[in-house]
Amino acid sequence: xxxxxVEDEHRLAEALGQILTEQKYMTxxxxxxxxxxxxxxxxxxxxxxxxxxxxxxxxxxxxxALRRERISTPVLMLTARDALPDxxxxxxxxxxxxxxKPFSPEELLARLRVLCRRKGEVVLDELxxxxxxxxxxxxxxxxxxxxxxxxxNYKEAELMRLLLGRPxxxxxxxxxxxxxxxYDSDVADNTVEAYVSFLRKKLAFVGSRAQIVSVKKIGYKxxx
Length: 224
Ligand code: CA
Known about the structure:
This protein is an alpha/beta fold. Helices cover 43% and strands 23% of the residues. The site of calcium ion has 5 residues, from loops.
C-alpha cells in the first residue's frame, strides 16, 4: 500500500509519514498543491491524504483536477477544526472522506483502512490466477498443482501482486519500478530482472506452470 501525503505543515507531514511507515505503508510526501497533483497523477497511490490549505493550489483544486482527469484514487482531506463548509465542499468535489485536525493516529489508520479497502471493493485473502495463489496476509506463494509453499519478501510480494493483477498483459518495467520501489527511486533495470528471476525460481519451486515472460525492451507478463 502506497500513500501520498500532501501537507505543507512539515511537522504534521513528518508525523503522518512516521505513523504510516510504522504500519508498513509506503509513503511519499510533498508540501505544495501543484506538486501533490503531479505526484497523484502517476496513479500509483492507494490513497491520498490531502490538506485543504496548501501553497500554489489548494486541496479543493487538487481533488477537482484529479476527478476531472478521472483519477479515482481515494482522497482523505484534512480540514481545520469545525470547518463544516470545507468538509461538505471537499466531499462534493470528489473527496472520499475528511478528517478534522487535530486527529489521533488511531482515527487516521481506521479511515485509511476503509479507504484502501473501498478502492478494491472486496478484501481478498488470496490472489488467484491460473494455478498460482498468493496469500496476501502471509505473502506465501503456492500453486493448486503442487503442495509446497514459499514465503515472498516484501518487494517480491509487491511485484507478484502486480503480475497477478494483470495476467497476460505486459507490465512495463518503468511501472514496476515506480510501484514497487517508488516514484523517486533510482533502481536499475537489472534489479527488476533479479527480482523477476527470484519469482521465476519460486514459481518453479511450488510447481506452478505459470511463466513470467520477458518482453524485450518493454517489461514482463505473466503467462498462465
Ligand atoms: Ca496547510
